[in-house]
Specification:
Blueprint (H helix, E strand, L loop, with lengths): L6 H6 L8 H10 L6 H6 L8 H6 L28 E5 L2 E5 L27 H12 L6 E5 L8 H12 L6 E6 L1 H4 L6 H7 L5 E7 L8 H12 L4 E7 L7 H13 L2 E8 L13 H14 L7 E6 L4 E4 L5 E3 L3 E5 L5 E5 L7
Parallel strand pairs: 2-3, 3-4, 4-5, 5-6, 6-7, 7-8
Antiparallel strand pairs: 1-2, 8-9, 10-11, 11-12
Helix pairs in contact: 6-8
The chain binds pyridoxal-5'-phosphate and iron/sulfur cluster.
The site of iron/sulfur cluster has 11 residues, from loops.
């Protein structure tokens, strides 16, 4: 129910100076804007470099695309047999259920695909066709429900989706990817939790959060409601310049996840989404930060540092043995042993 979806609403709320509104209108016209009240309250209005604001408040830098950026940076389209499904690995599919989110992250890897103007949920025939695809492929063991943010759907609709998937005998795991426990924790109420639990499948929730301040008491309580109901939780974070690209912040983030019973799973190297170069950290810095985390933290707290090779090639767990510096950037080895060129981590343009 957030009203914070326009530049003028952000200015009225004191989240951007009124004199910047004109310059930010074209950004908001290009990439969707939304903040929940929860997120707005978390922002430190006195800090021009606030790591929460940086994730959600539009910036002029987004209008500067760089040559290596792509509208489909992780190559979903290359592996989409039917609309709504991405099938790259035999035993699991992504099921992109909705195109909208309660917040719009400025670094979103699907920013060309998400937004309030997109058809919010899959149309009934597209949904039915996607479910039929999963039914027709007995090798699919896990369905990763994503979007957009699938938890932007109502509890009733979530329950229907879960029931459709649970009715497919070979689907054993349904993993929901969401930001909702952080950005709108009150929505994770008992009815919502119950809608996720369907006999016949194991439900898992992967939470996207990037800064320890996002894991407020209310967010941790929302996670506890899911976990206490028997739903294991994993984390996903994106390594972002000016948000979490230092050891102290990453350490606090990972420890806070574990304290909240959320197992750190992935730290994503930021994808080459358009207008996001100001968020990118070099692979070198990412590997250094991971080394520092490994040296300081219990293995419980250490996520895997992963990068999606553009074009839908593969998701690679980055370790120093799978990346090599080249004259123009990097080369990265995929799980099959093949090497792929990857552009250098660019410095911010401003
Ligand atoms: C990342 C990804 C998955 C998820 O699988 P993981 O084992 O969690 O990495 C599934 N399908 C696609 C296309 C992916 O990019
Ligand atoms: S919640 Fe996820 S899909 Fe939605 S804008 Fe943020 S990164 Fe993109």
């Amino acid at each position: 129910m957030s009203p914070l979806k326009t530049v003028s609403a952000l200015a009225d709320a004191g989240l951007i100076p009124a004199e910047r509104a004109g310059a930010l209108e074209p950004v908001a016209a290009r990439y969707a804007v939304a903040l929940t009240d929860t997120v707005a309250r978390l922002i430190d209005r006195g800090d021009p470099n606030d790591p929460i604001a940086r994730q959600y408040i539009p910036s002029e830098a987004e209008l500067r695309a760089t040559p290596e950026e792509r509208s489909d940076p992780i190559g979903d389209a290359a592996h989409s047999p039917v609309p709504g499904i991405v099938h790259r690995h035999a035993d699991r599919v992504l099921f992109k259920l909705v195109h909208n989110c309660p917040v719009y992250c400025r670094f979103c890897f699907r920013r060309e695909m998400v937004g309030p103007d997109s058809e919010s949920a899959l149309l009934p025939d597209v949904f039915a066709n996607a479910v039929a695809y999963i039914e027709g492929h007995p090798e699919i063991w896990e369905v990763i429900v994503t979007g957009g943010d699938p938890f932007s759907l109502s509890a009733r609709r979530i329950g229907e989706v879960a029931a459709h998937l649970a009715a497919i005998p070979h689907v054993k795991i349904v993993r929901w990817h969401t930001r909702l426990p952080v950005v709108d924790p009150a929505r994770i109420n008992d009815e919502f939790v119950a809608s996720l639990l369907t006999p016949g499948v194991t439900t898992i929730v992967a939470l996207h959060a990037n800064h320890p301040r996002e894991l407020t008491a209310a967010a941790r309580a929302a996670c506890a409601r899911l976990i206490d109901a028997g739903i294991p939780m994993l984390s996903q974070s994106v390594l972002l310049k000016g948000v979490n690209d230092d050891v102290k912040t990453l350490e606090a983030l990972m420890r806070t996840f574990v304290e909240a019973r959320v197992k750190p799973y992935y730290l994503h190297h930021a994808d080459l989404a358009p207008g996001t170069s100001h968020f990118r950290v070099s692979i070198e810095e990412g590997l250094t930060l991971m080394g520092a985390l490994r040296a300081r933290l219990s293995g419980l707290c250490v996520p895997q540092y992963v990068l999606d090779i553009p074009g839908g090639v593969a998701k690679v767990r980055l370790t120093s043995t799978d990346v090599e510096k080249t004259a123009t950037g990097w080369r990265i080895r995929d799980p099959d042993g093949n090497w792929h060129a990857y552009p250098a981590g660019l410095r911010p343009l401003s």
